[in-house]
Amino acid sequence: MLLRAALLCLLPVAAIAETHEVRMLNRNDTGPMPFEPDYLVIRPGDTVRFLATSPGHNAATIVGMIPEGGEKFTGKINQEIEVTLEAEGIWGIKCSPHYTMGMAMLIQVGDTPATEADLPEDLPDAVRQRMLEILERQKGE
């Protein structure tokens, strides 16, 4: 029994999945209709909990911004949703009602950071602008 407990202590800490929280807001210091944080770095197998902090929001994947092997999801308006992301790559997330206003975020699953090349050509202008601002901020960190 002690040997089993000792062996369990030797398992790498990275094997334990984490849960990350993202708030859906009406406004913060980055402007109107943000996710907070708007760029998240996680490991494969981690869970993201989207909190409906302000009313009228949801979280859903953006078509064309789901890594190979990933599955789309769409949360309901005003409801918390938890998703476990296994597929490595860059995930684009939107609030469906406020998408054209630029309410979007990026999730990096794994070690490869997002670049402008990850952004589809057909993004609404406000979403492209928000994502470029997010990427610029990430360069400075």
Automatic annotation (TrEMBL):
User: How is the cofactor bound here?
Assistant: Binds 1 copper ion per subunit.
Has the keyword Transport been applied to this entry? yes
**This protein's GO CC annotations:** periplasmic space
InterPro entries xref list: Amicyanin/Pseudoazurin, BlueCu_1, Copper_blue_Plastocyanin, Cupredoxin, Pseudoazurin
Record-annotated membrane-spanning stretches: none
Q: Which residues form the signal peptide?
A: 1-17
> Do the record's keywords include Repeat?
no
Residues the entry annotates as binding Cu cation: 57, 95, 98, 103
Mostly located where? periplasm
Pfam families according to UniProt: Copper-bind
Q: Which residues form the Blue (type 1) copper domain?
A: 24-109
State its cofactor. Cu cation
Q: Where in the cell is it found?
A: Periplasm
The molecular function terms in GO held by this entry are: copper ion binding; electron transfer activity
Q: What is this protein called?
A: Pseudoazurin
Supply the source organism for this entry.
Paracoccus denitrificans (strain Pd 1222)
